[in-house]
Amino acid sequence: MEINKVIEPTPGRGVVIAGPCSAETEGQVMQTAKELAALGQVDLFRSGIWKPRTRPGSFEGVGTEGLAWLKRVKAETGLKTTTEVAKAAHVYDCLKAGIDVLWLGARTTVNPFSVQEVADALKGTDIPVLIKNPINPDLGLWIGAMERIYKAGITRIGLIHRGFSYHGETIYRNVPRWQLAIEMKRRFPEVQMIVDNSHICGRRDLLAEVAQEALNLNYDGLMTEVHPRPDEAWSDAKQQITPAVFGELIENLRLRKPTANEMEMAKLTELRRQIDEVDNDILGMIGRRMRLADAIGEFKAERNLAVLQEDRWDEILRAATQKGKLQGLSAEFMERYLRAIHQESIDHQDAIVNKKMA
Ligand code: PEP
Ligand code: MN
């Protein structure tokens, strides 16, 4: 595949895509666009017109009417525009309205029928297309979507990393699994990779950190959801920020240049990131273990059983020391580690039993 850039970034900084999750009203769209344009740093204005909602009854987008608002954005601010398409009809409407770039959402990338329908509608055009990763961590679907769009004759294609759904507890809305996006970058080095920090984070306080992490990994830019009154947004309120806050976010980002030294840096960052992910997983598992200990505490309190049961502890220690050995972990470490975990479990159980007795 010979793929070209979707957007030429201004030298010295990455591609910047920003705008509301959804176009809600003409006023909201125009206000966001004007405030973003005033920052002088935005390459592309995003806004969802048709919203793929997980469950019916949520706001499903204003529909075709909103395309006229995006046209006005371009006419009055000069910002190029992009929106999500999932069906042939969306593509035709966008082409008619002069939208500059299209994107495929995560719920579309998972479905080859939908991707093919969009690809067929794109034949004979040369509009650039951004492709979000599929909801589930399956690189095949991501690559497949890119191939279908490419085969339709589109040569300006970019990727958006928006994280992956995860069954379990995590601080993210969609866990990044950086190594998957890095693998895509490795296989398709010429394809621009944009981080969608909004949908990875699902919350405002992590946005800057995730954006910086992506730049450290030599991503080409970011897509962030921006709303003039985030708390009142009709979709994804928790993750949206004001244009002013977004301005600060991009001011504070440090762009890395991929020189030889920086490549080494990226490699280190990648390994550290993997360590952070593992540490996160370990913490999540310890939390889970403590909640199980709590359940046992409740049960022991109900049945008036002793918190510490010696033979159980001996059994845990013996089994785990052996398993640790297989992982190359010393017996001393295993003992220290288990004692710490076990002590914390006992403290949890004690607290529960004491509360029940009080
Ligand atoms: C969006 O960008 O608003 C959106 C619906 O994202 P995703 O497809 O990544 O869920
Ligand atoms: Mn959104």
Widest sheet, order of strands: 1-2-3-4-5-6-7-8
Low-confidence stretches: none
Hetero groups = phosphoenolpyruvate, manganese (II) ion
User: What is the tally of beta strands?
Assistant: 8
Q: What separation lies between the terminal Cα atoms?
A: 70 Å
Return the string of H and E elements: EHEHEHEHHEHEHEHHEHHHH
Mean pLDDT: 93
Gross geometry? elongated
Number of discrete helical segments: 13
Decide which structural class fits the backbone.
alpha/beta
Please estimate the helix content: 40-55%
Rg, nearest Å: 25 Å
Largest sheet: 8 strands, parallel, barrel
Classify the beta-strand content into a percent band: 5-15%
Keywords:
alpha/beta; binds manganese (II) ion; 358 residues; elongated; 13 helices; 10% strand; single chain
Break the fold down into its secondary structure elements and pairings.
Blueprint lengths: L14 E5 L6 H14 L4 E3 L18 H13 L2 E5 L3 H10 L3 E4 L1 H4 L2 H11 L6 E4 L6 H13 L5 E5 L16 H10 L4 E5 H5 L5 H10 L4 E5 L17 H10 L7 H44 L6 H17 L4 H27 L1
Parallel strand pairs: 1-2, 1-8, 2-3, 3-4, 4-5, 5-6, 6-7, 7-8
The chain binds phosphoenolpyruvate and manganese (II) ion (MN).
Manganese (II) ion binds next to loops.
Structural notes for this entry:
- The structure is a single chain.
- By secondary structure, this protein is α/β, with parallel strands linked by helices.
- The chain has helices at 26-39, 65-77, 88-97, 106-109, 112-122, 139-151, 178-187, 197-201, 207-216, 243-252, 260-303, 310-326, 331-357, and strands spanning 15-19, 44-46, 80-84, 101-104, 129-132, 157-161, 192-196, 221-225.
- It has an 8-stranded parallel beta barrel, surrounded by 5 helices.
- Helix 5 (112-122) packs parallel to helix 6 (139-151).
- The protein binds phosphoenolpyruvate and manganese (II) ion.
- Manganese (II) ion binds at residues 21, 225, 235-236.
